[in-house]
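Running log. JK asked me to keep both predictions on one page so they can be read side by side. First protein, sequence followed by its tokens:
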Amino acid sequence: MALWRVYYHLVWATKERLPLIKLELEDSLYHYIIGKADSNSSIVHAIGGMEDHVHLVVSIPPRISIAGFVKNIKGSSSHYINHTLFPNYHKFAWQEGYGVFSLGSKQLDQAIAYVHNQKTHHLQQTAIPSLEIVKHQDDAPSVYQK
């Protein structure tokens, strides 16, 4: 068995940054993502976000690529929402691309607090711009702005 301690801060947005993650969807979506990550032997340290994007602090085992992990989570969660949770809901989709930031163990608590307090950071305009970057479909980086 391999020993691994790796931490990533991931962020991705809903398609066209539409406000699709409504309050009635948020808990179910987050629980699904946590369960899916757990089934892949990954550890979710924190999850949070806004109506149009999600932040995840996660440890992914070295046998799984970051891109593969994100693709699996995004694909399966949109399928879950569209076919199981809310089949008559407005069609849910994620935007292509994602942001990833590596963390050291000394940064973990700070990243967890940041993710848990997403709504407050956006309300008070204290969000960290470099942590709000996601890729558009044309692969040009953009900063999330409200």
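And the second, directly underneath as requested:
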Amino acid sequence: MKKRVILHAGDYFFGTARHEVATLLGSCVSVTLWHPQLKIGGMCHFALPENHFINPRFNPRFADDCYQLFQRSAAKHNTHLEEYQAKIFGGGNMYEKMPQARNILSSVERLPVGEKNVMSAVSFVTQANIPLLVAHVGEFGYRNIIFDIETGDVWVRFTPIHRQGDQSSLSGGF
């Protein structure tokens, strides 16, 4: 029987084939990394793309700190990030854009946080030369995801926030 690990915003986990990792995402993003030969991998759940605070410890609430944690975990297992496969989830738009800030903010600053989070995740995977297999991101809604470290599969249930009733859809095997 697999041990289920639940991640909340600001959590990070790296484990073996006996684990599955689950989380709920709105504008937050989860990146999964999976090593297909060793059946090890990890998942982060970050809320913001950058950590602007000076702190010697990594804080997985921030994307850039999660990437450092992935690098450390890979090194601890005598592997390199390029040996893993990446999948990116989340970055949903939870609110309408705020047009009143148009004159004082740059176009990047006006982007919803979910879009900034997705951009950060894609940039990390690209710069680290990690193959990106799936990106299930954006739209208005939230996602429940479960990452099976044994198989590398990630199951996704997307629920739009603009519809009433049971409008969720289950996608699997990403």
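Observation for JK regarding the second prediction: The domain at 3-171 is CATH 3.30.1330.200 (60s Ribosomal Protein L30; Chain: A;).
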